[in-house]
Write a structure and sequence with these properties.
alpha+beta, 4-stranded antiparallel sheet
């Protein structure tokens, strides 16, 4: 099975390497600010804050290139190698210093929020875009009901900075000990998130005693499920996140309509299967190796 995360990265690409987050007082949501590369026309000390009384973080020599991310009065905020802080605006040309007013929250601050919420290791909060941050944002989006793109769009940044659920425990307990039958009862509703595409699909439980027999809630959910499978129904197993009853399960699914159904309006003739750790098929009473492999893949991805 292909590496789903690598495939997703190729499709959507990485952020701009030094993207910064803008929070402007009075705005309903933050926006991403552009950065520019500037060549210093004079030596400049790098200060921690936009003040010569603040701590000096180092010095950048004339002729060196810096990344300008914001302007604050007579100061510009820059990144130059491992140095981050403020230099006097007169050290760069006027054209290169034309950036938005100083954003209150930097990309590194957003990373630190992800660290405090348990999605990112502190060593990855560098102020630079990296795979670990992209993955942390993607999992945050999955948990918090957002589109799982891995990109810091306005709604995601607002949720990270203003609140959002901390990273929950991912349940990989054995089927009989998972509590799934109380978390997700027959005719109850839940959500699955496909790890490869980030598709968020609402489901209803039809039944099942060895694993979950479920159906898409609506015709829209059916269409999304079919799209995940490339436009054709399939028995192929896929790793997913199952969100049911406030719990988060590492799981796997197939995409083939079969058996009984509850809804007559969801354009799905039957049910499909969702497996958890240690669940078995109804016919053989044995574990399906492909589903169990994908349950583990889901757990490894979400719990890392």
């Amino acid at each position: 099975m292909r590496n789903e995360y690598s495939s997703l990265r190729r499709k959507m690409g990485l952020w701009a390497a030094l993207a910064m987050v803008t929070l402007v007082l009075g705005m309903s949501a933050p926006a991403l600010a552009k950065t520019v590369t500037a060549t210093l026309k004079a030596d400049a000390k790098v200060y921690e804050k936009a003040s010569k009384t603040s701590k000096v973080m180092g010095e950048v020599s004339k002729g060196n290139k810096v990344t300008v991310s914001a302007v604050k009065g007579a100061w510009v905020r820059i990144i130059a190698g491992d140095k981050k802080g403020y230099i006097v605006k007169s050290a760069v040309t006027g054209k290169e210093a034309k950036q938005p007013k100083d954003p209150g929250v930097t990309f590194e601050a957003v990373q630190n929020k992800l660290v405090s919420k348990g999605y990112l290791k502190s060593s990855a909060a560098t102020g630079h875009s990296n795979e670990a941050t992209e993955k942390a944002i993607r999992i945050f989006q999955m948990v918090n009901g957002l589109g799982a793109s891995g990109k810091a769009n306005d709604s995601t940044v607002k949720k990270i900075v203003g609140g959002g659920r901390k990273k929950p425990s991912i349940n990989k307990a054995e089927w009989s000990k998972s509590g799934i039958n109380s978390a997700f009862r027959k005719r109850g509703l839940a959500v699955i998130v496909d790890l490869s595409t980030g598709a968020r699909i609402r489901i209803r439980r039809v039944g099942g005693h060895n694993h979950l027999d479920v159906e898409p809630k609506t015709a829209k959910d059916t269409a999304l499920l079919k799209k995940v499978y490339g436009g054709a129904w399939s028995w192929d197993s896929r790793p997913i996140l199952l969100i049911a009853g406030g719990r988060y399960y590492a799981a796997a699914m197939n995409g083939m309509p079969h058996g009984a159904q509850i809804s007559k309006t969801n354009n799905f003739e039957g049910q499909f299967c969702v497996h958890l750790n240690g669940s078995t098929t109804h016919g053989s009473e044995k574990e399906n190796p492909l589903h169990q492999t994908n349950v583990q893949k889901s757990y490894n991805y979400l719990d890392s």
